[in-house]
């Protein structure tokens, strides 16, 4: 079930990318896709750097009576 969902989302992404490429051209669409991917990766990386500190604090609080 999850694999089917992934295939569906990938297909929708390819279709959306093709539509954007038809509207603004393939080189610009490729650059835009790269910018979106870079932005998403940066946001995830920034949130993950704070995660270990929050986990340590939660573990310490759980150990207190």
Structural summary, described in words:
The chain has 65 residues and is mostly helical. It has one domain (2-63). It contains 2 helices and no strands. It has helices spanning 2-24, 26-63. α1 packs antiparallel against α2 (26-63). The longest helix is centred in the last third of the chain and has 38 residues, at 26-63. The chain is elongated, with a radius of gyration of 19 Å.
In short, what is this structure?
The chain is mainly alpha-helical. The protein contains two helices and no strands. The longest helix is centred in the C-terminal third of the chain and has 38 residues, at about 25-65.
Approximately how much beta-strand content do the residues carry? under 5%
Mean pLDDT: 88
Structural class assignment = mainly alpha
* Number of structural units classed as domains: 1
Count of helix runs: 2
Low-confidence stretches: none
Overall strand count: 0
Helix and strand sequence: HH
Radius of gyration: 19 Å
End-to-end separation? 43 Å
- Estimate percent helicity: over 70%
Shape: elongated
What is the makeup of the main sheet? none
């Amino acid at each position: 079930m999850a694999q089917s969902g992934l295939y569906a989302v990938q297909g929708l992404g390819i279709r959306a990318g093709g539509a954007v490429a038809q509207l603004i051209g393939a080189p610009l669409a490729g650059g835009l896709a790269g910018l979106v991917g870079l932005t998403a990766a940066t946001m995830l990386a920034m949130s993950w750097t704070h995660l270990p500190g929050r986990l340590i604090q939660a573990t310490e609080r759980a150990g207190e009576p």
